[in-house]
Write a structure and sequence with these properties.
This protein has 19 helices and 8 strands. The radius of gyration is 23 Å and the shape is globular. The strands form 3 sheets. A 4-stranded mixed sheet has the order 1-2-6-3. Strands 4-5 form a two-stranded antiparallel sheet. It is of the alpha+beta class. It has a single domain, classed as Orthogonal Bundle (Cytochrome p450), CATH 1.10.630.10. A hairpin with a 2-residue loop joins strand 4 and strand 5. The structure holds protoporphyrin IX containing FE. The site of protoporphyrin IX containing FE has 28 residues, from helix 5, helix 12 and helix 17. InterPro entries: Cyt_P450, Cyt_P450_CS, Cyt_P450_E_grp-I, Cyt_P450_sf, Cytochrome_P450_fung.
Length: 512
């Protein structure tokens, strides 16, 4: 370990800490080390260094205030092979990243997302309807919802079923992409660059990259061409890609960048939103008191005769607290995405060397007993005390409520769209349903493992079982009615549907 680096676990010659570097669920090990080595510590990976931040003040200073110096991403050769360097989330802090990022900000403004609320609310009403008709399928209904919202808002084309061609194509391409990105799936190409030159026929990982690239291209550029076709025929529906195509030259985007931006935003927005909502259901089942309090509040504010709308949230401090608590309890990206230092930085006497990888261990911060009372449990009440949920007498001013969406120049550009989805559905869920544990053959509740999560940079609960029942016949009727009324909003996003999709749409609108 070079002088000036923050402390960290003991190293071995040549390997550094490589032999103990966690291959999965790194946030748990990183948090354990933080409790020993402190809020800023370092890991040696061969001759390279990684800095792990589990300290809110350090995150604020280094990642937000000095973002110009910490907004790079570590090089990832496999990502470049698949995306040609055009995936905004993993691409380096480069000219093309800046162009893509600017384009994303141009379309995903708060106002633009508000303009798309009708389709988001219509999709949310289908989600309630799907759960009402087939509660045991809730996990995939939510996944369909997450995907269909982003497909509609971005590409103007919705996925009425989980099996709709575009949804399936996305889930399959995404699965391949995640496999390619998984640590250990490829040789350490970024550490030993000569491996890049192994011919494809001898390198399975290169074949996997080509396969993933083809799958992504087919979907992303297929959607782009469909949007162009609709524009040519004068059938605009106001989706974001239409705007992007119209402003392509002004934004400095070529065809490849436009197609990839549209595609990578599906990646960024689809399963993240779904994972958040799946975690919320897990929490509602595992913490019945919190569920009851949220229901009491929504009953008081809304009653039984109508569904909630986004404007109602202002009147519901407990549900707002529950939404923040779900971000804290099970963050969708427990270590954000790795950043990289562009320059040497100095912080509290430590050196953060140029070129090092920086991990923001948001899990460790959100589960720090120094900051939060009873951090392992889902306790929305903490966010009624103050906006950061910290325990009395603690200074939480280095935190901020939107911290789960990332830091500095890399912070999530989809935050407005995501928050609208989260807010609408969180209210809908507690208004509409009771969520209880599944039972065994003797009728005993089955204990839920609230740590059974998927691996990866973005994580969510693995598929789990629970019982979901409507809270009243009146509410079930309102859900049916709202879903039928949504048909109007859906109609301009339902073109080119397969025969199976058309039949599904007809059947689902005929009866539950
Ligand atoms: C619950 C929902 C979501 C959460 C919690 C979330 C969180 C995050 C986080 C933590 C990052 C990494 C920030 C960093 O490295 O500092 C990120 C990046 C990103 N997110 Fe989201 N996100 C969500 C939804 C969305 C949606 C709906 C979209 C698209 C419409 C989206 C698009 C992106 C993109 C493109 C990036 C990469 C930004 C860059 O590297 O410049 N996300 N998000």
């Amino acid at each position: 370990r070079e002088p000036g680096l923050p402390p960290g676990p003991p190293t071995l010659p040549l390997l550094g800490n490589l032999h103990i570097f966690p291959k999965e669920f790194a946030h748990f090990k990183f948090t354990e080390w933080a409790r020993t080595y402190g809020g800023i510590y370092s890991l040696k990976v061969g001759s390279g260094s990684a800095i792990v931040l589990t300290d809110a003040a350090a995150v604020k200073e280094l990642m937000d205030k000095r973002s110009g110096s910490t907004a790079d991403r570590p090089p990832m050769h496999v990502a470049d092979l698949v995306t040609g360097g055009l995936n905004m989330a993993v691409s380096r802090y480069s000219e093309s990243w800046r162009t893509l990022r600017k384009a994303a900000h141009t379309i995903l403004t708060s106002q633009a997302c508000t303009n798309h609320l009708p389709i988001q609310s219509a999709e949310a009403s289908q989600l309630l309807h799907d759960i009402l008709c087939c509660p045991e399928g809730f996990y995939n209904h939510i996944r369909r919802y997450g995907n269909s919202v982003i497909l509609s808002v971005l590409h103007g084309k919705r996925a009425p079923r989980y099996e709709t061609q575009e949804a399936t194509a996305f889930f399959e391409a995404q699965h391949e992409w995640e496999l390619v990105l998984e640590p250990g799936a490829t040789p350490p190409i970024d550490l030993i660059p000569i491996l890049k030159y192994v011919p494809e026929r001898w390198a399975k990982w290169k074949q996997d990259c080509s396969k993933t690239r083809k799958m992504q291209w087919r979907l992303y550029f297929g959607l782009l061409d469909e949007t162009k076709e609709r524009l040519n025929q004068g059938e605009e529906n106001g989706c974001f890609m239409e705007e992007l195509l119209a402003r392509q030259v002004e934004l400095g985007m070529n065809r490849e960048m436009t197609g990839y931006l549209g595609g990578m935003l599906i990646e960024g927005g689809s399963d993240t939103t779904a994972s958040y909502l799946q975690s919320l259901i897990l929490a509602l089942v595992a913490y019945p008191d919190a569920q009851r309090k949220a229901q009491e509040e929504i009953d008081r504010v809304i009653g039984s005769h109508r569904m909630p709308t986004l404007n109602d949230l202002e009147e519901m401090p407990y549900i707002r607290a529950m939404i923040l608590e779900n971000h804290r309890w099970r963050p969708v990206a427990p270590m954000f995405m790795p950043h990289r230092a562009l320059n040497d930085e100095e912080y509290k006497g430590f050196v953060i060397p140029q070129g090092c990888t920086i991990f923001v261990n948001i899990w460790g911060i959100f589960h720090d007993p120094e900051l939060y009372d009873d951090p392992e449990n889902f306790v929305p009440e903490r966010y009624l005390l103050n906006e950061n949920g910290t325990k009395p007498g603690t200074d939480g001013s280095d935190l901020r409520p939107n911290l789960p969406f990332g830091v500095g120049r890399r912070a999530c550009p989809g935050i407005h769209l995501a928050q609208n989805s989260i807010n609408i559905n969180a209210m809908n869920f507690v208004w509409a349903f009771n969520f209880t544990p599944d039972t065994d053959t003797q009728g005993n509740p089955i204990h839920l493992d609230t740590f059974d999560y998927t691996k990866g940079i973005g994580t969510g609960p693995r598929s789990f079982k629970c019982k979901i029942t409507p809270r009243s016949a009146e509410k079930a009727n309102i859900i049916e009615r709202e879903f039928l009324e949504a048909a109007n909003t859906f109609s301009k996003f339902e073109f080119g549907l397969s025969e199976e999709d058309k039949e599904f749409v007809m059947r689902s609108r005929a009866r539950c």
